[in-house]
Amino acid sequence: MEQKTYNIKFQGIDLVEKKIYRVNIHDNELFSHEVITQSVADAEKNIVVTFVAVHVRTLNDSPTLVAEIMAGFGFFFENFETVFAKGENDKHIVPLEVENLLKTIAISTMRGIMYSEFRGTQLHKAILPIIVTDSLKPMAGNLLDLKKEENYQVFTVPQE
Q1: For residue 95, how many other CB atoms are within 10 A of its CB?
Q2: Does the predicted TM-score (pTM) go above 0.85?
Q3: Is residue 135 part of a domain?
Q4: How far apart are CA 7 and CA 109, in angstroms?
C-alpha cells in the first residue's frame, strides 16, 4: 500500500459561537456532550476548514442545555491538488483518512478552547471527553443550515 504524505499547516482558529446559559449547576453535576463536525474545502485558497460545534447538557433526570460552542479550524495544504481529487460534480473530495485526521486535531483543540472558555465559570468541570473519530455517526445536511433551522445567528465572513 502506498504511503501518502500530507503537507498540512494550521491556517487559523476562529471561535464562531459561545453561549453559556444561566442554570444552577451542582458541584457533583455530570455533563453530556453532543459533538457535530463538518469539513469544507476551498480549492482556491488550498485550505480545508473543519467546524466543530458542541452542545453541553447536564446529565440528570431532566437534561438541560447549559452551553453551546462552535469553532472553525483552518488547515492549509501545500499539496492540495494531489490530496483532494475532483468528483463528478467538479468539487474536491476530502478523503476519509484526511477528514478523520482533521477532525481529530480540531476536536482535541476544541477541548482546550472549552477548558479555557469555561474556566472560572460553573462549567469548569464540563471537560470534553476523548472522542474517537471512528465513533462519529454521519448525518445529512450542512452544519450551518442546521444552525439556521435551530434559529441560530450565523455570520458570514466577506471574501478578501
Answers
A1: 13
A2: no
A3: no
A4: 19
Cα 77 → chain centroid: 18
Q: For residues 120 and 62, what is the distance between their CA atoms, to the nearest angstrom?
A: 25
75: left (phi over 0), alpha (psi -120 to 50) or beta: beta
Range of the domain at 46: 8-129
Give residue-wise pLDDT tens across range 66-78: 999 999 999 999 9
Rounded to an integer, the average pLDDT of 54-66 is 89
CB of 127 within 8 A of CB of 114? yes
Q: Say if 43 falls within a structural domain.
A: yes
Q: Are 36 and 102 in contact (CB under 8 A)?
A: no
Task: Dihedral sign for Cα 147, 149, 152, 154, please.
Answer: positive
Q: Is residue 74 part of a domain?
A: yes
